[in-house]
Amino acid sequence: MNNGMDNNNSNFFSGSINNQGNYNVNNNTYYDPNNMVNNTQNVNNDVNNQGYYNDGSMQNINYQTNNYNNVGYNGLDLNNSNIQYDNNTNLDNTNNQYNNGGTNNYNNVNINSDESNNDTTNFNSNMYYTNTSNQYVDLMALDFANTPIVDAANQILVTASDKGASDIHLDPAIDCLKVRFRIDGVLETYLHVPNIYRQNLTTRIKIMSGMNITETRLPQDGAIKTTINGINLDMRVSALPTKKGEKIVIRILDYSKNIKGIEHLYFSQLNYSKIVKMLNVPNGIILVTGATGSGKSTTVYSFLQRLNTEGTNIITVEDPVEMEIEGINQVQVNSDIGLDFAAVLRSILRQDPNIIMIGEIRDSETAKIAVRASITGHMVLSTIHTNNSLNTIERLLDMDVERYLLASSLEGIVSQKLARRLCDKCKKTRSTTQFEKTMFKNFLNMDVSEVYEPGECSECNHGYKGRIAIQEVLDISQDIRDAISQGLRKEELRKLVYTKDVISMFQDGLYKVVAGFTTIEEILKLIELDDEIEDNKELTGMLMNKNK
Predict the structure, then answer these.
(1) Could you write out the DSSP letters of every residue in 72-129?
(2) Which of 365, 379, 438, 498 has the most CB atoms less than 10 A away?
(3) Strand partners, 170
(4) How many CB atoms lie within 10 A of CB 273?
(5) Do the bridges between strand 428-431 and strand 450-453 make them parallel or antiparallel, or are there none, so unpaired?
(6) 461 falls in which pLDDT band (50, 70, 90)?
(7) pLDDT tops 70 at residue 418
């Protein structure tokens, strides 16, 4: 779907630190807010006057100004098709000798490897590691025979946190317990725990999270909030009985982006200005939508940080309370005693709130109470599991929210997904295919001849490091309110939603591909391309030929 956006008039949130960065993309500037400081020089990359501000992973790199038909990329001189990295890429990792016959020690466990990656590992026969990808990952070796189970559990938690994992999976198998980390959205096995230590490890995790260690037949939820080796850990734990034993999943909560604020969430200038406008209204509902694990809580907490002032009474109802914020009254749902979202909301309205945050709209009753709260003079923030702005409106109507109430209460919708972010140290360019060129031209009105693809280095995970949000922000206009109230068909409502003033999630993703934040493959994994190009015969034909 090409929404006909005027790509020369969209403004993005621009910013520079110490006057060191200024990236413009079609007058669309993304602000990548971390620390481009100290050692970065002469930064001025233009992509059709469209660009992005890169973060602290680009330190100690000297860049030069590069232009190619006003399309420039970091560290590249595309005008002469001559790649100049200026120390931007260094694949020689002197600390890792996995493929050079080096010897590496992990907690006194010796691992020898040769050029063919045939390895002999001494684990005192207490733990073994299987690397199915034939590539070494950072192996965390534990000598369970000589390591107290408390220390072993602590090392797993700390190592996962150090590696930037979002989740730890303890998966029961026939002959072992697999420990996997989800890093940048991808699960990867780090070690196998022998069966004789399986029960000890799972029991220790359940004790740390406050679960009933004698109950193995029912699902349980818990939390870990502690400090290990000077590292503050805040985790949510879930235990699920399976055929092969209890499976435990630990969600690692990272509040760093929440604390920094909205400016650090990679919103475009246009989207940022819409959000500021939404947050300044006295009443109405603002919804943040996306799948599980798409960063909705991070965005909502960033909104709360901005709204948390001396003169406001903010009350939240959450399940669970993921981050404690000074100055905000936070209520933990407890369904076992009847304290659910609807019950708390009815009481909150008698607490003279200015702003109400609902962790998630899960059912019709919660949705109706939230809508009625917003039209009685309260600002309501919440999340809901939908893919985009249009689907969010349909979902609320399916929850039996009356049209006239929804039309008058809904102020804005922020939809987002997370894409893996390219490692700035080892990413490299490739030529775009004809299909990609046509896609960029149709959706962004840009001629793009080269894009980035992942490389490989010691500081990233298969060419990716971290994730970045792909966003879509809809400010509810009067025309959209009238359409909702009148019950217009989905096709007509789509035309009103996706106007030139809205950057669709797909377009936002393509902009970030052009700027080198992520890859076209990542965007196409997140967004259904068929829906985007259904009205474009040229792209539809090219896609059909490509898939043959």
Answers:
(1) --TTEEGGGTEE--TT------TT--TTTT-EEEETTEEEEE-TT--EEE--TTT-B-
(2) 379
(3) 179, 248
(4) 16
(5) antiparallel
(6) confident
(7) yes
Mean pLDDT, residues 267-281: 93
Three-state SS for 340?
coil
Cβ atoms within 10 Å, residue 262: 18
The rounded distance, in Å, linking the Cα atoms of 517 and 510 is 10
| Helix H or strand E encompassing 17 | none
DSSP letter for 223, please: E
pLDDT number for residue 243: 93
Q: Are 154 and 162 in contact (CB under 8 A)?
A: no
For β-strands 76-77 and 50-52, DSSP reports them as: unpaired
Q: What is the pLDDT of residues 17-73, one digit of tens each?
A: 333 333 344 444 444 444 333 333 333 333 443 334 334 333 333 333 333 333 333
pLDDT at 249 over 90: yes
Q: Is 449 exposed, middle or buried (0-12, 13-18, 19+ CB in 10 A)?
A: middle
Q: Which tokens sit at 8?
A: 């020369």
Phi, psi dihedral angles at 235 (to 5 degrees):
-135, 150
Spatial neighbors of 63 by CB under 8 A, at least 6 apart, are 40, 41, 42, 43, 45, 74, 75, 86, 88
| Encoded tokens for 345 | 């909301």
Q: Would you state the pLDDT for residue 141?
A: 65
pTM: 0.71
Read off the pLDDT band of 335 (50, 70, 90).
Answer: confident
Q: How many CA atoms lie within 13 A of 318 on its CB side?
A: 19
Q: Which alpha helices (DSSP H) does 388-504 contain, by range?
A: 389-398, 403-409, 434-444, 478-486, 490-497
CA distances to 113, 494, 520 from 537, rounded to whole Å, are 53, 19, 21
What is the distance between the alpha carbons of residues 518 and 509, in angstroms, rounded to a whole number?
Answer: 8
Q: What is the spatial distance between Cα 221 and Cα 210, in angstroms, rounded to a whole number?
A: 9
Band (pLDDT 50/70/90 cuts) for residue 535 is low
Q: Take residue 156 and report the two structure tokens written for it.
A: 């797993």
Tokens matching residue 499? 């106007």
The answer to whether 425 and 456 have CB atoms below 8 angstroms apart is no
Contacts of 542 (CB under 8 A, 6+ apart): 434, 435, 438
Confidence band, pLDDT 50/70/90 cuts, at residue 322 = confident
Question: In this predicted structure, what is the pLDDT of residue 286?
Answer: 97
- Strand segments, DSSP code E, in 265-422 are 284-289, 314-318, 329-332, 355-358, 379-384, 410-422
| Cα–Cα nearest to 14, from 38, 3, 30 | 30
What distance lies between CA 465 and its chain's CA centroid? 12
Whether the bond between 320 and the residue before it is cis, its omega within 30 degrees of 0, is yes
Q: Say what the pLDDT of residue 509 is.
A: 94
One-letter amino acid for residue 274 of the chain: K
For residues 114 and 132, is the Cβ–Cβ distance under 8 A? no
Report how many helices (DSSP H) and strands (DSSP E) the chain contains, helices first: 16, 22
Task: Kindly state the tokens that stand for 35.
Answer: 């620390």
Q: Measured in whole angstroms, how far is the alpha carbon of residue 126 from the centre of its chain?
A: 36
